[in-house]
């Protein structure tokens, strides 16, 4: 999608996450100078396969596997510093050179152990389906103006005093919730002492850096986590994440103006999955769902939880096209459908016997909708060897054409496997 007039592209999940954004970013990063992660935290898991090697990237942008890319953790991310360095060190053990190629926004907020304790305690009562990684409580602290930012580590002693106050507050909340866990001030201080010398040298005003790069004509990819239907404003609230996953959050989370963005690519699976709780209108019947899960390897990259699986939901994708302003789609995992003789596609919903013209904003309504299906013929031929659109079986091409018509955005990429060379540029 990069071109003479296209320098800044957002890659966003257009369903409930796990669409294969990491793989698309990895492929597109070959032509990029910078890859910026703009929201979320260690609750994301972007899986990239190179040959027989598999990399699961939770906080480090997917462009790290290309030597030409500088990778940035933007201000919209909530950073788990322990996990971040564990991931960074793991890349080093796999001979991926990261020195001088990764920077962290000094404005990014830190996920600390007490956030994880609060998250686990909240989940016991709320049953949202969180990963327990402390994401929600960290964003709560951010918007409550009591967060600890990466740049605060430059002033370690005063930051320790702030952390002691936050730990005391967290312990009060844990007691009120009836949790047995308690946070330790000493452990938090020791963590800061250990991590600050590594993290501070990586921190800078990354928003200025990205702005300046675009002024110089550099190519920048903005990488989101999760999916549009998990956006805290536009998703299936309250079964959502705690940040703006949609493209509008990219400008805020990267520290640039919205007019700097040229294209927005939405990534969708050729079917639909969801991990965690919340409605999934086109969820398949048990036996078929298990077949989709098995064929697609549908287990969470971070938690290993089985994903719920169903058919492509055009109502969801049309909604995502609207709220993200998508200029193109990337369809992943087309090969998972290779063995099906017939493939239902959700074209819309009915609610109380009447057609839904817009995506319901209330999960109670979404749980009651009746999906309307159109059954398309399968192709029952392998697609994994296709490298051009013309290589696909006619039925597979017709399937993609129908998804494009129903979604209202052009398909730019099609993925037929896990490897880099199994992405077709349309």
Strand order of the largest sheet: 9-7-5-2-10-1-11-14-18-19
> What is the CATH level 1 assignment of the largest domain?
Alpha Beta
State the end-to-end CA separation: 10 Å
DSSP strand count: 19
CATH architecture of the largest domain: 3-Layer(aba) Sandwich
Q: What is the CATH fold-level name of the largest domain? A: Adenylosuccinate Synthetase, Chain A, domain 1
Structure classification = alpha/beta
CATH superfamily of the largest domain: Adenylosuccinate Synthetase, subunit A, domain 1
How would you describe the shape?
globular
Oligomer: single chain
Mean pLDDT equals 94
- Put simply, the count of helices is 12
Low-confidence stretches: none
Strand content: 15-25%
Main sheet characteristics? 10 strands, mixed
Query: Into which percent range does the helicity of residues fall?
Result: 25-40%
Q: Provide the number of structural domains.
A: 2
Rg of Cα set: 21 Å
Written account of the structure:
It is a single chain. The N and C termini lie close together (10 Å). β15 and β16 form a beta hairpin. The radius of gyration is 21 Å and the shape is globular. α3 packs across α4 and α3 runs parallel beside α5. It folds into two domains: 322 residues, Adenylosuccinate Synthetase, Chain A, domain 1, CATH 3.40.440.10; 91 residues, Adenylosuccinate Synthetase, subunit A, domain 2 (Orthogonal Bundle), CATH 1.10.300. The protein has twelve helices and 19 strands. The strands form five sheets. The chain has a ten-stranded mixed β-sheet with strand order 9-7-5-2-10-1-11-14-18-19, with helices on both faces. Helix content is 32%, strand content 20%.
């Amino acid at each position: 999608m990069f071109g003479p007039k296209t320098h800044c592209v957002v890659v966003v999940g257009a369903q409930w996450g796990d669409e294969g954004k990491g793989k698309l970013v990895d492929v597109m990063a070959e032509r990029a100078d910078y890859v910026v992660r703009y929201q979320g935290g260690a609750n994301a898991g972007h899986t990239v396969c190179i040959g027989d090697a598999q990399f699961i990237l939770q906080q480090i942008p997917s462009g790290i596997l290309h030597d030409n890319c500088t990778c940035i953790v933007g201000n919209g991310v909530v950073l788990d510093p322990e996990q971040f360095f564990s991931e960074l060190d793991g890349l080093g053990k796999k001979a991926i050179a990261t020195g001088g190629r990764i920077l962290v926004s000094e404005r990014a907020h830190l996920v600390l152990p007490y956030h994880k304790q609060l998250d686990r305690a909240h989940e016991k009562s709320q049953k949202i389906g969180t990963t327990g990684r402390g994401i929600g409580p960290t964003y709560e602290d951010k918007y409550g103006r009591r967060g600890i930012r990466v740049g605060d580590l430059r002033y370690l002693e005063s930051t320790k005093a702030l952390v002691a106050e936050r730990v005391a507050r967290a312990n009060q909340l844990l007691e009120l919730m009836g949790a047995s866990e308690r946070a330790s001030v000493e452990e938090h201080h020791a963590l800061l002492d250990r991590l600050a010398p590594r993290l501070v040298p990586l921190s800078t005003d990354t928003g200025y850096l990205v702005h300046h790069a675009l002024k110089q004509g550099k190519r920048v990819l903005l990488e989101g986590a999760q999916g549009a239907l998990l956006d805290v404003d536009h998703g299936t609230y309250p079964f959502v994440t705690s940040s703006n996953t949609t493209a509008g959050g990219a400008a805020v989370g990267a520290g640039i103006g919205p007019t700097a963005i040229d294209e927005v690519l939405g990534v969708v699976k050729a079917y639909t999955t969801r991990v965690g709780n919340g409605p999934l209108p086109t969820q398949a019947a048990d036996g078929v769902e298990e077949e989709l899960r098995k064929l697609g390897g549908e287990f969470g990259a971070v938690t290993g939880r089985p994903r719920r699986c169903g058919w492509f939901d055009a109502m969801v994708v049309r909604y995502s096209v609207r709220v993200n302003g998508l200029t193109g789609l990337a369809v992943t995992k087309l090969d998972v459908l290779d063995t099906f003789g017939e493939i239902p596609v959700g074209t819309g919903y009915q609610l109380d016997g009447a057609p839904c013209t817009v995506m319901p904003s209330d999960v109670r309504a979404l749980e009651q909708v009746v999906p309307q299906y159109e059954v398309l013929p399968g192709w029952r031929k392998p697609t994994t060897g296709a490298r051009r659109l013309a290589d696909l079986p006619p039925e597979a091409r017709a399937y993609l054409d129908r998804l494009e018509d129903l979604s209202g955005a052009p398909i730019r990429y099609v993925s037929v496997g896990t490897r880099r060379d199994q992405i077709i540029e349309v």
